[in-house]
């Protein structure tokens, strides 16, 4: 259900809280990174997928994800 709600919202606006990137996007992105483990097929939610890809491509987000990856290395 949550993916459907997000998809509907993101089909109407670029970011979750409107036209600007906000803490809402920053807070939701990490939760959606595990979509496969949640049993979700991202292609079923095209607006979410487009948003996710755009957020994931942001340089600061990429750096943050890399920090986490480095911390997980043995």
Topology record:
Layout: H1 2-10, H2 23-32, H3 46-56, H4 59-72
Helix pairs in contact: 1-3
Give a quick account of the main beta sheet: strands, pairing sense, barrel closure.
Answer: none
Write the element-wise H/E pattern from the N-terminal end onward. Answer: HHHH
Structural Rg:
13 Å
Termini separation:
37 Å
The share of residues in helices is: 55-70%
Beta-strand content: under 5%
* Total helical segments: 4
Strand runs, count: 0
Structural class determined from secondary elements? mainly alpha
Shape: globular
- Nearest-integer average pLDDT: 94
* Low-confidence blocks of residues: none
Short description:
The protein is mostly helical and 74 residues long. Helices cover 59% and strands 0% of the residues. α1 crosses α3.
């Amino acid at each position: 259900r949550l993916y459907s709600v997000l998809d509907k919202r993101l089909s109407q606006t670029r970011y979750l809280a409107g036209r600007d990137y906000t803490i809402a996007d920053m807070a939701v992105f990490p939760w959606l990174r595990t979509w496969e483990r949640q049993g979700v097929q991202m292609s079923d939610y095209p607006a979410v997928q487009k948003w996710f890809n755009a957020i994931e491509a942001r340089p600061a987000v990429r750096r943050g994800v890399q920090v986490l990856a480095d911390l997980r290395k043995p």
